[in-house]
Amino acid sequence: MEYSKDVERQLADNEKGVYGSKNASDASTACLESGVLPVTGAKPYRPESGEVGEVRDVSPDFLRQKEAEGQANFKRLGWKRLTIVLIVEAVALGSLSLPAAFATLGMVAGVLCSVGLGIAAVYSSYVVGQLKLKYPEISHYADAGRLMFGKWGYEIFGFMFTLQLIFIVGSHILTGTIMWNNLTGGGNGTCAIAFGVVSAIILFILAIPPSFAEVAILGYIDFASILGAIGITIIGTGIRSHQQEGGLDAVYWSAWPKPGVSLHEAFIAICNIVFAYSFALCQFSFMDEMHTPRDFSKSIVALGGIEIVLYTLTGALIYSFVGVDVASPALLSAGHTLSKVAFGIALPVIFISGSINTVVVGRYIHGRVFKNSIIRFINTPKGWGTWLALDAIITLIAWIVAEAIPFFSPLLAISSSLFISGFTFYLPSIMWFMFIKEGKWYERRNWACAAANTICFTIGMIVLGLGTYSAIKDIMVRYADGLQSSPFSCIAPS
């Protein structure tokens, strides 16, 4: 087993008597007395609990054991489990917003955007994986920022990374609030804030396990949940459309954008599709736990194929069955009874998919704060204590976000425009031009990749500019028309 350079160097110093000790045990005691950790640069490792005078074992063997356990625990992902983890992170809220996006864009543009953006996202994710293989020290997107733009890149990317993941967790809290309101028949007088609190507590509990390999176990339930919910919605809306007067012929849907659609409405729809393909955001974090990182491409291809087929069929079928009045999230279009059934089945995906984002951002912050300490492995009392506290703080902030912006589509649009546009599209393109390409970009061997990355960069910049404008415009229109409740309102969000 290999240990961090800091640990090995400190242990070697201990054994040589650097602290004036005659042996390693005395050196460990000297570490405590002098306030120097056996892991360079960290805070002093003090006794945490127990009887008066108790000194916790910080001997070299103890340090080696804890680091070995931590490294083993965080290197258990194979490509199959990585696929499941990526599905947990990606296939959730996006699929619930696509039918409404199809209703705005029309069937032709909806299908083209779903397939085209999916292919572009898969390619960008492949570039992210290539960068991780070339620079294994990258653990999170913020590390890629440091590689690209130095210290400022690390700080800016870290801020964007953290804020984006908190936005996603807030989106899941919001969806949970909508779900509880639907299951209880409009809340039966219960304030919607209470539903948000319940959703936040569930997300907090599910985010307690810090390893993505543990999340992968829940991933199978998550994937079955979303497939079941979507399947019930498709079947239910199909049966309703056949049973209504006139059958399917009476359903109004169009191959073209709905009449009078505005620019900001069209880009809200496009941003919701972009959000559905946001799996590149957490890819560095997930790949850091792989025992064989070079197998990542298998996961990317598998996930991309599943997402493109699932999203396109979900958007097209439900839109064709319901028509232009399809709701967002789409489960609300299944009818009074079936929507309750669908929401009940979707309960695992709402919370499991949300909790993995808490784990990702928590691992980033926790690993940064305790970079040179065994606390980062979350296998000591202090490690678990700090992890649980951080989990609670992240969930609380996400709940505030969900209550302050109590509407579904604009929240997804803001998130997509400001962050996913970069993490999924234009930043991986820049990475290719800076670090991946071999030779000049205009050489014949680089033509195809240069063109693909230029397209992805252009997509990202368009979504960043027009998407952000559209999201802000949509919020202004909704509040001006009185279509939304106020922040922290007891009225259920929509």
TrEMBL record:
Q: Pfam families, from UniProt?
A: Aa_trans (PF01490)
Transmembrane segment boundaries: 82-102, 108-128, 156-180, 186-208, 215-239, 266-287, 299-322, 342-365, 386-405, 411-435, 447-472
**Keywords noted in UniProt:** Membrane, Transmembrane, Transmembrane helix
Q: Which residues form a coiled coil?
A: none
> What is one cellular component GO term in this UniProt entry?
membrane
Similarity-based family: Belongs to the amino acid/polyamine transporter 2 family.
- The residues covered by the Amino acid transporter transmembrane domain are 76-472
Specify the protein name: Amino acid transporter
Write down the InterPro entries for this protein, in alphabetical order.
AA_transpt_TM
Compartments (UniProt record): Membrane
Give the primary localization class: membrane
Which GO molecular function annotation, any one, does this entry have?
A: L-amino acid transmembrane transporter activity
* Annotated membrane topology: Multi-pass membrane protein
